[in-house]
Design goal:
369 residues, two-stranded antiparallel sheet
Length: 369
């Protein structure tokens, strides 16, 4: 049962949502949401790395009019934040992606509709949020072209290509539980017809989602393919899954309009460098006009401030949006975003910044511990 709108005002930070969601979501699904690859070293390191970034505040700046509004890839946002693409959100709430997109619309955040969403991109874009569409590289290139056409026709404002999944990381929690997607929830953007996909056929000691993605995603994705993709869409192209600055430079060289520094929330290579550590070098390697986004372990508005100070133009959040969805549907996600906006506004003012763009000039240091 979801929490009432009135009770949601009692949730004062994202840890309140995490605790409440853990109580409501059945264990195998909670492991799917929370888990990562291998020993989950990178999942834990993503969180701790942000906490070790110390921001050096500036004083005697006029912050009487402080705003979280910003511009990104031609859109005006209410805050420098988007909801990352995440699969099968109807697992957490019957309205799934539509509820999360509604919350993004109401707060001025970007909503990144995902290839493996349980609602079609046309339905999501119709909600009215600033919508981007995320792709994995598919074995069927004609289907990729058709999806690009659908995204453009639906009114999506950017295409995001995720490049860090040549194969799915070995997520041991899902393997141990034999995680399987229920038959009534499907990847709405993929043509399944009347037949269930491998994601719906569980077996002991295996993740059905891993079986499905192995059959669907093409591990041969290369720079030449990225060039092909650039030539097939008029929309801004965002490359997600960048950790090495040389890859960031090359992505921009073949036509990327922005990059997302990301280790997939610790769900791909366990032991990969954390996003907070990789971000500054990627930012320094790129021209000023190229936005750099970041995800992985953002849990507060102060974390958003830290990311801005390290060079990010905006951040993407993943799991916290799912916590809000599980707890309160659209109202729950809206409360998550509102808390982040309030914490960010406080952080900007207390660090001497009146708007997000000014945070890039803040110095940072490494906190002890």
């Amino acid at each position: 049962m979801t929490v009432s709108v009135e009770r949601l005002t009692e949730f004062l930070d994202l840890t309140d949502f995490e605790r409440a969601a853990a109580e409501r979501v059945e264990p195998a699904l909670w492991d799917f949401v929370s888990g990562g690859a291998g020993t989950e070293q990178t999942v834990a390191a993503n969180l701790s790395a942000w906490r070790r970034v110390g921001v050096v505040p500036r004083v005697l700046n006029d912050v009487s009019r402080c705003t979280t509004r910003t511009a990104l890839l031609g859109s005006e946002l209410g805050l420098p934040l988007g909801i990352a693409p995440m699969a099968y959100q109807r697992l957490l709430h019957p309205e799934g992606e539509l509820a999360a997109a509604e919350a993004a619309r109401d707060t001025g955040a970007v909503y990144v509709a995902g290839l493996l969403n349980s609602c079609a991109v046309e339905e999501i874009a119709a909600v009215g949020a600033i919508t981007w569409f995320q792709l994995y590289w598919l074995r069927d290139r004609r289907l990729t072209e058709a999806l690009l056409e659908r995204a453009e026709a639906a009114g999506c404002r950017a295409v995001v290509i995720t490049v860090d999944v040549p194969r799915m990381g070995r997520r041991l929690r899902d393997v141990r539980s034999g995680f399987t997607v229920p038959p009534h929830i499907r990847a709405a953007n993929l043509p399944t017809g009347e037949q269930l996909s491998p994601a719906h056929h569980g077996r002991a000691g295996a993740s059905s989602l891993m079986v499905h993605t192995t059959a669907t995603f093409d591990p041969c994705l290369s720079w030449r393919d990225l060039e092909w993709l650039r030539g097939r869409t008029r929309l801004p192209l965002v490359v997600k899954g960048i950790l090495d600055p040389d890859d960031a430079v090359r992505a921009v060289g073949v036509g990327a309009d922005a990059v997302v520094v990301s280790n997939h929330g610790g769900r791909q290579l366990d032991g990969a460098v954390v996003s907070a550590t990789a971000l500054p070098a990627v930012y320094e390697a790129l021209p000023d006009h190229v936005p750099v986004l970041v995800d992985g372990g953002i849990r507060s508005g102060v974390d958003v401030l830290r990311a801005l100070a390290l060079g990010a133009s905006a951040v993407l959040i993943g799991r916290p949006a799912l916590w809000g969805l599980a707890v309160g549907g659209a109202a729950g996600v809206r409360r998550v975003l509102a808390l982040l906006a309030r914490e960010l506004e406080d952080g900007l003012a207390l660090s001497g910044c009146s708007r997000p763009a000014e945070a890039a000039a803040l110095r940072t240091t490494l906190l002890a511990g």
